[in-house]
Structures are given as structure tokens and as C-alpha cells.
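pinned: reference chain
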Amino acid sequence: MTAFCKGGVDFPSSACYCRHRPVAAGAKSDAEQGDQAHTSTVRRKWFRRKGTRSSRCSRANGSLNVRNVFRRKVLAPSLDQLPVVPPLVRWTGNVAGMNRRLQAVAEYTGLSESTISRVLNDRPGVASTTRDAVHTAVDVLGYKRPTHLRPQANRVVGVIMPLFGNPIFPAFAEAIGGYLAQHGLTPLFGATQEGGPSESVYAQTMVDRQAAGVIFICGMHSVVSADHMHYRVLVERNLPVVAIDGLASDLNIPCVSTDDKEAVELAVGHLVQLGHRFIGLAIADNEHVPGARKVQAFNETVGRYEGVTGLVDRSLYSLEGGTSTTSHLITQGATGIVCGSDVMALGAYRAARRLGLTVPDDISVIGYDDSMFMPFVAPPMTTIRQPVAAMAKAAVGLLVRQMMGRVQRSDEIFFAPELVVRSSTGPAHALLSRV
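pinned: its C-alpha cells
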């Protein structure tokens, strides 16, 4: 279909300046209709710049008549002469570019440009349905939302920890998840294991998902000989990072830990009061920072008590490790065992049974962590309680303050432990009388 101006110049019917759009004989695709609308908009702007004005058009007998298209005789340009406006992908730019984007969104939604502007500037006085419509239009048209209106993928916080082999890890995870929720943050958990995804893999995943920060629980940050490059990468990216339970000396990130020195002093003092003179420590190797602190504190504490001998045996933080170390310590004469974790202490129970001994009549056992099931084992376990809730709250607080741009001291904060006395410790005289 073709229309003619007073000067006799023909132009496509899609450029009908009163915005009536005659339907062409052949059906057009959505892409072609979009191109028509874009071209029509540009032509109207061209005429406005030239001082022209559209008038009415009327349909009669199936034909299109255009009257008084020109206020003065200015010929419409051909399509080849029209300026080409490139697709828009960002909201940042000059005023003219922003105006074009506002017009495009307004045309798509049927709303006024002032309403679109209020929504994009997050001004009050706009219905939620209208805001949703504008946000959808921005996404559909391929534009990027203003930063404050983008989907909050950065409200996710990574929480990376070893596999759930120790009950204390889920306890920390649960507490951290609760405190993150209070700040409107969502935890994204990653559990590392031998042969599975490593900490560095999870750290890169958190970066790819635009996480707001990462909390590491009992991770490689507490192992002296481990590769710490992924921690440094996160710090270089200015991603907030917090560690829980020990920090190697080459790392410079905030960390919260239980005071291992005070914990060992409480455990050894309790056994000394019960009359034990041969006390063993079942622990991991010195590459683990909290373990090394426990060993140092154990030797210093035992040295302060006259007539008390300290024995140290190292293995893994596992049930099997606790069984192995306790067997060696008992054969060396230990009557009281301080374990590096509750899981190792359960291994100490098993070692005592295998040797024909009972807890606490023959051997006293103290765990470390106060995991949730320790009151229900037989006998209920005496253990050192880590302040999980307080440590989790502090870790989340440190992370949130980093997210807010506040400068944090990159050092370690120590929390006081608590000795929880139950039924796995008793006087040493029973075993001594049998030896």
C-alpha cells in the first residue's frame, strides 16, 4: 500500500504520521512489525526537527488519503536517508540516549515516559503491578536495569565447609543461615570432601554467581601447608570473606575461633581435680592451627601441675583416629583422655570397650565441641562446648560490615569455651588400684 504527499513523493504506509497504521496486503512477521514501528518513530522525529506537523488521514473505499501532511513544503526523505539508531543495551549514557530508551519502554508498555522515569528511579507513588510491567519491558527489550533495580543475586552468601562428617559443621551452618536470614541474605552451602569439589572450586562458583561474600567453616585457612591462593583471589576481588576456627599466619582475613588455650586448661584442670596423674591428648597433626594451639596449651598446662605427666598422640579428626590414639595412650598408662573433637571422643569410647575397660570407671574421656548428640551417648559425654551461636553471629556481623564498606581488622577474634561436665569423667582411683 502506498500513500502520496502533496509534492508527489511516495513513502511506505508504515510512516502514516497520525499514527494510523494501514495493514499491508501481506502478513508481516513480528520482527518486521518491530522494524516498522522503529522506522516510523524515527521519521516522526525527523519531521518534528524540520518543523512539520501531521494532520488527519482518512480511509475511504479501501484507500488511504493523506491531507495537509506538510505545514510547509518539506519532502519526506527516503528510507535510505533516515538516520540509523543502533540497538540500546545500557541505561548509562547521554541524555538523548536515555530519552530514546524511555520512549521505547513507554511505547512497549503503553505508559507515559514520566511513569517509566519514576519506576526506573525507584520513586514512590507507582503501583506494584506497574513497576513489574516496566521491569519486564526493560528485560524484554534487552536493556540492563539500573543497578538498584537489578535482581539481587548478590544477596547470596557462600558458606563453605567440610563434608558433614562432624556434627559441629551442620551446627555452625544452621546458626549462620539463621543470622544471614535476619539480614535478608540467603546462604549457599558447599561441602568439600576428598575426591570431590575443593574449596577453590566452590570459591570460584561463588564468584560466578555474584555472591555477596563467603564464610569458610573449618577450612583450609586453618591448615598451614595448604594452598591459600583462592582466599587471596577473593580478597583481591574485594569480596567480603570471613573464616571460622583458626587462621594461618599468611592470611589476612577476619576470623572467629574458640580459645583453644582456655579450652585445654579447663579440660586438664578438671581431670587433675579428679586425681588423674597421667593425662593424654588425642589430637591431629601440627599442620592444623587449632590442633597446634591445643598441643602447646596442653604441654604448658600439664607442666604447671607437679606430678602430672602429659602424653600426646596424633591421628585424624575421625572416629577411627580417636580409636587409634586412645588405644596408644591407654597402653602408655593414661587414665584421662582429652580429645580434639567429639567424634574422636566417640572413638575413645570404642577403644576402651575393645580393651575391656569402661567409661568412666576405668578411663575418663573429654570431648571437644559439645555436638548435639553428646548428651545422649552412653555415658553422656563431658566435653568442651564451643559457643556456636555467638561465633556464627559474630562471623555474619563481620561479613555484613564488610559488605557495607566498613573497614574490618583482619585478625582473629577468640571466644571463651565452656566445660560441660556429664558422666564420661570420674575419679582415677579405680583404674590405679587395678594397675
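why pinned: The longest helix spans residues 30-49. The mean pLDDT is 80.
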